[in-house]
Known about the structure:
The complex is a heterodimer. Chain A is an alpha+beta fold. In chain A, 26% of the residues lie in helices and 24% in strands. Chain B has a single domain (4-37, 44-68), classed as 2-Layer Sandwich (Translation Initiation Factor IF3). Chain B contains 2 helices and 4 strands. Chain B has a 4-stranded mixed sheet, covered by helices on one side. The chains are: A alpha+beta, B alpha+beta. Chain A binds chain B through residues 128, 189, 191-193, 196-197, 199, 224, 227-228, 230-231, and chain B through 39, 43-44, 47-49, 51-52, 56-62, 67.
Amino acid sequence: MTDHFIEDKTTKVTVAVDNTGAQKVDFNDLKSGGFIKQRQKDLFTVRLRCPGGRLSTEKLLEISKIAHKYSKKGVVHFSFRQSLEILYVDYKEFSNVVAELEKIGQKVASCGPRVRVPTACGGCEYNPNGLTDTQKMADMVDKTFFGTPTPHKFKTSFSGCPIDCARTKEMDMGFQGVVDPTWEEESCTGCTICSEACKEDAIASDPDTGKPIFDPVKCLFCGDCIRACPTEAWKPKRYGHIVRIGGKHGRHPMEAVEVCSFLPDEKVPEAIKMTIDWYNANGKRGERIGNALKRVGLDNYLKYMEPVFQNTAKAGA
Amino acid sequence: MSDSTIDLRGVMCPINFVKTKLKLEAMNPGEILEVILDSGDPIQNVPKSIKEEGHKIVEVKKEGDFFRLKVQRS
Protein backbone atom coordinates (compact mmCIF):
# COMPACT_ATOMS: atom_id res chain seq x y z
CA MET A 1 0.00 0.00 0.00
CA THR A 2 1.27 3.38 -0.87
CA ASP A 3 0.99 5.84 1.99
CA HIS A 4 3.22 8.69 0.89
CA PHE A 5 4.46 10.33 -2.24
CA ILE A 6 7.63 12.22 -2.77
CA GLU A 7 7.90 15.14 -5.12
CA ASP A 8 11.03 15.73 -7.12
CA LYS A 9 10.61 19.23 -8.51
CA THR A 10 13.56 18.98 -10.91
CA THR A 11 12.67 15.74 -12.69
CA LYS A 12 8.91 15.43 -12.05
CA VAL A 13 9.48 11.82 -11.07
CA THR A 14 7.56 10.60 -8.07
CA VAL A 15 8.77 7.82 -5.83
CA ALA A 16 6.29 5.95 -3.67
CA VAL A 17 7.32 4.47 -0.38
CA ASP A 18 5.22 1.62 0.96
CA ASN A 19 4.71 0.50 4.54
CA THR A 20 7.49 -2.05 4.38
CA GLY A 21 10.00 0.64 3.53
CA ALA A 22 10.60 -0.69 0.01
CA GLN A 23 10.67 1.92 -2.74
CA LYS A 24 9.19 1.90 -6.17
CA VAL A 25 8.91 4.60 -8.78
CA ASP A 26 5.49 6.14 -9.34
CA PHE A 27 4.80 8.76 -11.97
CA ASN A 28 1.69 10.00 -10.26
CA ASP A 29 3.09 13.44 -9.49
CA LEU A 30 -0.37 14.74 -8.54
CA LYS A 31 -0.38 13.22 -5.09
CA SER A 32 2.76 14.68 -3.68
CA GLY A 33 3.06 14.80 0.08
CA GLY A 34 5.17 16.99 2.30
CA PHE A 35 8.57 15.77 1.08
CA ILE A 36 10.60 18.31 -0.87
CA LYS A 37 13.73 17.41 -2.76
CA GLN A 38 16.92 19.20 -1.75
CA ARG A 39 19.99 20.04 -3.86
CA GLN A 40 21.88 17.31 -2.07
CA LYS A 41 21.68 13.79 -3.50
CA ASP A 42 19.06 11.57 -1.78
CA LEU A 43 18.20 14.25 0.78
CA PHE A 44 14.76 15.74 1.26
CA THR A 45 13.02 18.26 3.49
CA VAL A 46 10.16 16.80 5.54
CA ARG A 47 7.47 19.42 6.07
CA LEU A 48 5.33 18.96 9.16
CA ARG A 49 1.69 19.91 9.43
CA CYS A 50 1.36 22.71 12.01
CA PRO A 51 -1.97 24.55 11.50
CA GLY A 52 -1.74 28.12 12.72
CA GLY A 53 1.95 27.53 13.54
CA ARG A 54 1.02 26.17 16.94
CA LEU A 55 2.59 23.17 18.69
CA SER A 56 2.38 21.90 22.24
CA THR A 57 5.72 22.01 24.02
CA GLU A 58 5.33 18.30 24.63
CA LYS A 59 5.08 17.58 20.91
CA LEU A 60 7.87 20.00 20.12
CA LEU A 61 10.19 18.09 22.45
CA GLU A 62 9.37 14.82 20.68
CA ILE A 63 9.71 16.39 17.21
CA SER A 64 13.12 17.75 18.13
CA LYS A 65 14.26 14.24 19.11
CA ILE A 66 13.08 12.87 15.75
CA ALA A 67 14.64 15.79 13.87
CA HIS A 68 17.89 15.26 15.72
CA LYS A 69 17.87 11.59 14.80
CA TYR A 70 17.04 11.94 11.09
CA SER A 71 18.38 15.31 9.94
CA LYS A 72 21.85 14.61 8.56
CA LYS A 73 22.82 18.15 9.45
CA GLY A 74 20.84 18.46 12.69
CA VAL A 75 18.77 21.44 11.53
CA VAL A 76 15.11 22.45 11.18
CA HIS A 77 13.60 25.41 9.36
CA PHE A 78 10.47 27.45 10.11
CA SER A 79 8.68 27.61 6.77
CA PHE A 80 6.99 30.77 5.53
CA ARG A 81 3.68 29.02 6.21
CA GLN A 82 4.38 28.32 9.87
CA SER A 83 5.26 24.66 9.40
CA LEU A 84 8.31 23.13 10.95
CA GLU A 85 10.56 21.48 8.35
CA ILE A 86 13.13 18.80 9.12
CA LEU A 87 16.00 19.31 6.69
CA TYR A 88 18.50 16.83 5.21
CA VAL A 89 16.42 13.66 5.62
CA ASP A 90 17.47 10.62 3.54
CA TYR A 91 14.52 9.33 1.47
CA LYS A 92 15.39 5.76 2.44
CA GLU A 93 14.34 6.65 5.99
CA PHE A 94 10.95 8.20 5.13
CA SER A 95 8.93 5.27 6.46
CA ASN A 96 10.73 5.38 9.79
CA VAL A 97 10.42 9.17 10.12
CA VAL A 98 6.71 9.05 9.31
CA ALA A 99 6.13 6.14 11.71
CA GLU A 100 7.92 7.92 14.54
CA LEU A 101 6.04 11.16 13.84
CA GLU A 102 2.74 9.31 13.76
CA LYS A 103 3.47 7.82 17.17
CA ILE A 104 3.45 11.32 18.66
CA GLY A 105 0.42 12.39 16.61
CA GLN A 106 2.38 14.59 14.20
CA LYS A 107 1.32 14.56 10.58
CA VAL A 108 3.33 15.43 7.48
CA ALA A 109 2.09 18.44 5.47
CA SER A 110 1.51 18.69 1.74
CA CYS A 111 2.62 20.34 -1.42
CA GLY A 112 0.93 20.33 -4.83
CA PRO A 113 -2.58 21.23 -6.02
CA ARG A 114 -4.67 20.92 -2.90
CA VAL A 115 -5.89 22.76 0.19
CA ARG A 116 -2.79 23.59 2.23
CA VAL A 117 -2.27 23.85 5.97
CA PRO A 118 -3.95 27.09 7.11
CA THR A 119 -1.86 29.81 8.73
CA ALA A 120 -3.03 32.08 11.54
CA CYS A 121 -1.92 34.72 14.00
CA GLY A 122 -2.37 34.27 17.77
CA GLY A 123 -5.95 35.55 17.63
CA CYS A 124 -8.22 36.56 20.46
CA GLU A 125 -7.06 33.77 22.82
CA TYR A 126 -4.03 35.76 23.98
CA ASN A 127 -3.38 38.69 21.62
CA PRO A 128 -4.94 41.90 22.99
CA ASN A 129 -5.81 43.09 19.44
CA GLY A 130 -7.38 39.77 18.47
CA LEU A 131 -11.09 39.80 17.58
CA THR A 132 -11.57 36.24 16.33
CA ASP A 133 -10.31 32.86 17.50
CA THR A 134 -7.98 32.38 14.54
CA GLN A 135 -6.26 29.34 16.04
CA LYS A 136 -9.56 27.53 16.50
CA MET A 137 -10.57 28.42 12.94
CA ALA A 138 -7.22 27.25 11.50
CA ASP A 139 -7.62 23.97 13.35
CA MET A 140 -11.14 23.56 11.96
CA VAL A 141 -9.99 24.23 8.36
CA ASP A 142 -7.07 21.82 8.78
CA LYS A 143 -9.32 19.06 10.10
CA THR A 144 -12.11 19.64 7.54
CA PHE A 145 -10.36 20.65 4.33
CA PHE A 146 -6.65 19.78 4.44
CA GLY A 147 -5.53 17.92 1.32
CA THR A 148 -8.77 18.46 -0.65
CA PRO A 149 -7.75 18.37 -4.34
CA THR A 150 -8.05 21.68 -6.22
CA PRO A 151 -6.85 22.85 -9.69
CA HIS A 152 -3.74 24.45 -8.11
CA LYS A 153 -2.60 25.11 -4.55
CA PHE A 154 -5.21 26.67 -2.27
CA LYS A 155 -3.88 28.68 0.65
CA THR A 156 -5.97 30.03 3.50
CA SER A 157 -5.11 32.19 6.47
CA PHE A 158 -6.76 33.81 9.47
CA SER A 159 -5.87 37.21 10.91
CA GLY A 160 -7.50 38.25 14.15
CA CYS A 161 -7.60 41.99 13.42
CA PRO A 162 -7.07 44.58 10.65
CA ILE A 163 -3.29 44.67 11.28
CA ASP A 164 -3.50 41.44 9.26
CA CYS A 165 -0.27 39.72 10.32
CA ALA A 166 -1.48 36.56 8.55
CA ARG A 167 -1.59 38.52 5.26
CA THR A 168 -5.11 37.60 4.20
CA LYS A 169 -4.73 39.88 1.16
CA GLU A 170 -2.13 37.45 -0.26
CA MET A 171 -4.18 34.26 0.19
CA ASP A 172 -6.37 32.28 -2.18
CA MET A 173 -8.93 32.72 0.58
CA GLY A 174 -8.26 34.85 3.65
CA PHE A 175 -10.31 35.68 6.74
CA GLN A 176 -9.62 38.81 8.76
CA GLY A 177 -11.28 39.51 12.08
CA VAL A 178 -13.51 42.56 12.53
CA VAL A 179 -15.80 43.92 15.22
CA ASP A 180 -18.81 46.10 14.67
CA PRO A 181 -18.77 48.82 17.35
CA THR A 182 -21.91 50.31 18.78
CA TRP A 183 -22.23 53.40 20.95
CA GLU A 184 -24.66 54.20 23.76
CA GLU A 185 -25.10 57.85 24.58
CA GLU A 186 -26.29 57.28 28.20
CA SER A 187 -22.99 55.82 29.41
CA CYS A 188 -20.79 58.29 27.47
CA THR A 189 -19.09 61.00 29.52
CA GLY A 190 -17.65 62.82 26.49
CA CYS A 191 -14.07 62.14 27.60
CA THR A 192 -12.79 62.04 23.97
CA ILE A 193 -10.49 59.04 24.58
CA CYS A 194 -12.14 57.11 21.70
CA SER A 195 -11.34 59.78 19.16
CA GLU A 196 -7.73 59.79 20.37
CA ALA A 197 -7.58 55.97 20.35
CA CYS A 198 -8.93 55.72 16.79
CA LYS A 199 -6.02 55.50 14.37
CA GLU A 200 -8.25 56.02 11.33
CA ASP A 201 -9.85 59.38 12.19
CA ALA A 202 -13.19 57.61 12.08
CA ILE A 203 -14.22 59.23 15.37
CA ALA A 204 -14.32 62.98 15.84
CA SER A 205 -15.27 64.60 19.14
CA ASP A 206 -18.12 67.05 19.31
CA PRO A 207 -16.45 70.39 20.22
CA ASP A 208 -19.13 71.14 22.86
CA THR A 209 -20.00 67.78 24.43
CA GLY A 210 -16.85 65.74 23.60
CA LYS A 211 -19.12 62.96 22.41
CA PRO A 212 -18.08 60.89 19.39
CA ILE A 213 -19.12 61.56 15.80
CA PHE A 214 -18.60 58.23 14.04
CA ASP A 215 -17.75 57.83 10.35
CA PRO A 216 -18.28 54.16 9.37
CA VAL A 217 -16.65 54.75 5.97
CA LYS A 218 -13.27 55.39 7.60
CA CYS A 219 -13.70 52.65 10.24
CA LEU A 220 -11.58 49.48 9.90
CA PHE A 221 -13.58 47.73 12.64
CA CYS A 222 -10.53 47.07 14.82
CA GLY A 223 -12.21 47.71 18.19
CA ASP A 224 -9.66 50.21 19.52
CA CYS A 225 -12.54 52.51 20.57
CA ILE A 226 -14.23 49.68 22.49
CA ARG A 227 -11.02 48.79 24.36
CA ALA A 228 -10.18 52.41 25.14
CA CYS A 229 -13.62 53.55 26.32
CA PRO A 230 -13.51 53.97 30.13
CA THR A 231 -17.28 53.66 30.60
CA GLU A 232 -18.24 50.90 28.15
CA ALA A 233 -20.25 53.37 26.08
CA TRP A 234 -18.59 51.73 23.04
CA LYS A 235 -19.50 48.05 22.95
CA PRO A 236 -19.00 45.18 20.49
CA LYS A 237 -22.21 44.58 18.56
CA ARG A 238 -20.92 41.48 16.71
CA TYR A 239 -17.68 39.79 15.70
CA GLY A 240 -16.93 38.31 12.29
CA HIS A 241 -14.56 38.05 9.35
CA ILE A 242 -13.83 40.05 6.23
CA VAL A 243 -13.46 37.44 3.49
CA ARG A 244 -10.89 37.95 0.73
CA ILE A 245 -10.48 35.88 -2.43
CA GLY A 246 -7.88 35.43 -5.15
CA GLY A 247 -4.69 36.69 -3.57
CA LYS A 248 -1.28 35.12 -4.11
CA HIS A 249 2.40 35.88 -3.89
CA GLY A 250 5.06 34.27 -6.04
CA ARG A 251 6.32 35.53 -9.39
CA HIS A 252 3.18 37.41 -10.22
CA PRO A 253 1.62 38.59 -6.96
CA MET A 254 -2.06 39.44 -6.86
CA GLU A 255 -4.01 41.22 -4.16
CA ALA A 256 -7.12 39.43 -2.95
CA VAL A 257 -10.49 41.14 -3.36
CA GLU A 258 -12.95 41.57 -0.53
CA VAL A 259 -16.04 39.46 -1.22
CA CYS A 260 -17.76 39.62 2.14
CA SER A 261 -17.43 42.34 4.74
CA PHE A 262 -18.86 40.49 7.71
CA LEU A 263 -19.08 36.71 7.89
CA PRO A 264 -19.83 35.12 11.27
CA ASP A 265 -17.69 32.20 12.54
CA GLU A 266 -20.35 29.59 11.92
CA LYS A 267 -20.58 30.41 8.21
CA VAL A 268 -16.83 30.03 7.55
CA PRO A 269 -16.85 26.25 6.83
CA GLU A 270 -19.68 26.63 4.32
CA ALA A 271 -17.94 29.58 2.64
CA ILE A 272 -14.75 27.54 2.20
CA LYS A 273 -16.61 24.47 0.98
CA MET A 274 -18.60 26.45 -1.59
CA THR A 275 -15.47 28.28 -2.75
CA ILE A 276 -13.59 25.01 -3.26
CA ASP A 277 -16.59 23.65 -5.19
CA TRP A 278 -16.66 26.75 -7.40
CA TYR A 279 -12.89 26.56 -7.93
CA ASN A 280 -13.02 22.87 -8.88
CA ALA A 281 -15.91 23.52 -11.28
CA ASN A 282 -14.40 26.62 -12.91
CA GLY A 283 -10.62 26.58 -12.46
CA LYS A 284 -8.31 25.08 -15.07
CA ARG A 285 -5.60 22.70 -13.94
CA GLY A 286 -2.62 24.73 -12.76
CA GLU A 287 -4.62 27.93 -12.42
CA ARG A 288 -4.88 29.71 -9.08
CA ILE A 289 -8.34 30.84 -8.02
CA GLY A 290 -7.38 34.52 -8.52
CA ASN A 291 -6.70 33.88 -12.20
CA ALA A 292 -9.82 31.75 -12.52
CA LEU A 293 -11.82 34.66 -11.10
CA LYS A 294 -10.25 37.02 -13.65
CA ARG A 295 -11.03 34.68 -16.52
CA VAL A 296 -14.53 33.56 -15.49
CA GLY A 297 -15.55 36.78 -13.74
CA LEU A 298 -15.98 37.72 -10.11
CA ASP A 299 -19.75 38.10 -10.64
CA ASN A 300 -20.02 34.40 -11.48
CA TYR A 301 -18.35 33.51 -8.18
CA LEU A 302 -20.39 36.01 -6.16
CA LYS A 303 -23.62 34.71 -7.64
CA TYR A 304 -22.63 31.16 -6.69
CA MET A 305 -21.73 32.30 -3.16
CA GLU A 306 -24.94 34.29 -2.63
CA PRO A 307 -26.52 31.68 -0.30
CA VAL A 308 -23.56 32.05 2.09
CA PHE A 309 -22.73 35.73 1.73
CA GLN A 310 -26.29 37.10 1.61
CA ASN A 311 -27.70 38.69 4.75
CA THR A 312 -24.19 39.43 5.96
CA ALA A 313 -24.75 43.17 6.19
CA LYS A 314 -21.68 45.36 6.12
CA ALA A 315 -20.25 46.30 9.51
CA GLY A 316 -21.23 49.76 10.65
CA ALA A 317 -24.46 49.54 8.70
CA MET B 1 -9.28 64.83 44.30
CA SER B 2 -6.68 62.13 43.86
CA ASP B 3 -4.59 60.19 46.36
CA SER B 4 -1.48 60.17 44.21
CA THR B 5 -0.20 61.49 40.86
CA ILE B 6 2.11 60.04 38.23
CA ASP B 7 3.37 62.25 35.41
CA LEU B 8 4.21 60.07 32.40
CA ARG B 9 4.80 62.79 29.84
CA GLY B 10 7.77 61.77 27.70
CA VAL B 11 7.62 58.15 28.92
CA MET B 12 7.33 55.56 26.13
CA CYS B 13 4.94 52.62 25.73
CA PRO B 14 4.82 50.17 27.42
CA ILE B 15 6.97 51.58 30.23
CA ASN B 16 4.29 54.20 30.97
CA PHE B 17 1.77 51.41 31.52
CA VAL B 18 4.17 49.35 33.68
CA LYS B 19 4.85 52.43 35.86
CA THR B 20 1.10 53.02 36.21
CA LYS B 21 0.52 49.39 37.13
CA LEU B 22 3.27 49.39 39.78
CA LYS B 23 2.00 52.63 41.24
CA LEU B 24 -1.57 51.27 41.43
CA GLU B 25 -0.37 48.07 43.07
CA ALA B 26 1.23 50.09 45.82
CA MET B 27 -2.10 51.82 46.52
CA ASN B 28 -5.18 50.65 48.44
CA PRO B 29 -8.36 49.46 46.66
CA GLY B 30 -10.68 52.35 45.87
CA GLU B 31 -7.95 55.01 45.97
CA ILE B 32 -7.61 57.40 43.04
CA LEU B 33 -4.44 57.79 40.98
CA GLU B 34 -4.03 60.74 38.66
CA VAL B 35 -2.14 59.73 35.49
CA ILE B 36 -0.77 62.31 33.06
CA LEU B 37 -0.28 60.93 29.56
CA ASP B 38 0.88 62.31 26.22
CA SER B 39 -1.49 62.22 23.24
CA GLY B 40 -0.69 59.76 20.45
CA ASP B 41 0.50 56.24 21.35
CA PRO B 42 0.27 56.66 25.15
CA ILE B 43 -3.39 57.74 25.19
CA GLN B 44 -4.19 55.06 22.58
CA ASN B 45 -2.64 52.26 24.62
CA VAL B 46 -2.43 52.96 28.35
CA PRO B 47 -6.16 53.40 29.13
CA LYS B 48 -7.13 50.08 27.52
CA SER B 49 -4.33 48.29 29.39
CA ILE B 50 -5.45 49.86 32.69
CA LYS B 51 -8.99 48.70 31.95
CA GLU B 52 -7.79 45.16 31.13
CA GLU B 53 -6.11 45.05 34.55
CA GLY B 54 -9.52 45.64 36.08
CA HIS B 55 -9.02 49.24 37.27
CA LYS B 56 -11.61 51.90 36.56
CA ILE B 57 -10.98 55.10 34.65
CA VAL B 58 -13.30 57.59 36.33
CA GLU B 59 -12.31 60.82 34.64
CA VAL B 60 -10.45 61.95 31.52
CA LYS B 61 -9.51 65.56 30.80
CA LYS B 62 -7.67 66.84 27.76
CA GLU B 63 -5.25 69.67 28.51
CA GLY B 64 -3.58 70.85 25.34
CA ASP B 65 -1.18 68.15 24.21
CA PHE B 66 -1.68 65.80 27.12
CA PHE B 67 -4.38 63.98 29.07
CA ARG B 68 -5.15 63.90 32.77
CA LEU B 69 -6.79 60.61 33.83
CA LYS B 70 -8.23 59.65 37.18
CA VAL B 71 -7.94 55.94 37.80
CA GLN B 72 -9.62 54.11 40.65
CA ARG B 73 -7.60 51.16 41.91
CA SER B 74 -9.54 47.88 41.80
